[in-house]
Amino acid sequence: MTKVENTIFDFIKKHLSVILFLAVTALGILMRVPGLDFESVDYQAFLNPWWDTIRANGANGLSQQVGNYNIPYQILTYLLTLLPFKALHAYKFVSIIFDYALAISAGLIAFELTGRKKLFVPVLTYSIVLCSLAVVFNSAFWAQCDSIYVSFILLAIYFCMRNKNILCFVMLGLSLAFKLQVVFIIPAFLYYYVSTRKISFLHFLIIPAVDILLCAPALLFGRSFADIFLIYFQQTDYGHAITMNYPNIYALLCQDSAEGDYYLLKPLTIFLTFSVLGVVLAVVFKKGYDLSDPEKFLLTSIWTSFTCLMFLSSMHERYSYLLDVLLIVYAVIFKKRFFVAAAANLISLRGYGNFMFSGAIDLRLTAVFNIGLYAYITWIYLRDILASGGTKDGENKIKGEKPGKVRA
What we know:
- This protein has one domain (24-386).
- It starts with a helix and ends in a 22-residue tail after the last helix.
- By secondary structure, the protein is mainly alpha-helical.
- The protein contains 19 helices and 2 strands.
- The radius of gyration is 22 Å and the shape is globular.
């Protein structure tokens, strides 16, 4: 090998993380270009008509609800109509920008947990999240905005690990302002609250306060204060179906249920979900298990998210977006259970393909595999966290802080 070749190899080895970051950043753009002109059924039936209505009404249109997304997304759409972009591309550009914010947020978590000494694992985390097919299809093809609310959730986890509690709950509030699915992660923070005593219940009040603050511009144009809460309440009743293309237990048992069954079964699904989450919360509280350890907290977040998906009714295929990203972050950082992250993302791709490209994989068959995956994660969670015990006083093993201390 010549001296020049040796120099090149040494340079690549020394700057591998930076080179990988730049290469993947460019690759992420290339992966999204083929989907920019694709129009999904959701875009044609909902997003595009919303755009036309919002553009026609201007700022004064903020006085009334357009679509079934929360007010901040309507405000964002109005601002986009002021720019010289087609509706399809404007929606997708915003979501793609947040794809990168999502990947950076995942990298920050890895950076925090790997000791801030080496960049390779954070960059690898960034790379896999950015190039995840579920993430690519969601924004570039489907024109959906799930990367927005999940970006804020990852930042909340990051600030929680750094004991920046106010910033943590501000991020959760920002997430709630864009999607109700933030409730999938709230139980994990409740578990953290009762197990570590490092935060106050008052911190949870920041979440709706931030949502109200972001909705305030519409209130100035005459919107009712009650609209802030009614929008999400109405969302929970959208579709009138127990299962909506997500392969949970109801896809296996109730796929052919009539609309009348929905009103009978929906309260039962909510009760079942609260019961499962509540029993584990009671155990965590009673036994004093320590969830301040980052690996345990991430696994708790994964399990609570998966539990909500598995037992709540009317789950769409896209609602697994948070779970898919959390599993990738967990697998890359802690170098374990890569097959779980891969399996979950493949199951999600089945839902994406079925909706956007009329895929033929049976929902019930997919549900069998997904239920098996949930059972495995539940077993891992009970074995690795609850069965392992922990510091009963909620002592932070990472930061070494005294129990009972609430930090801002």
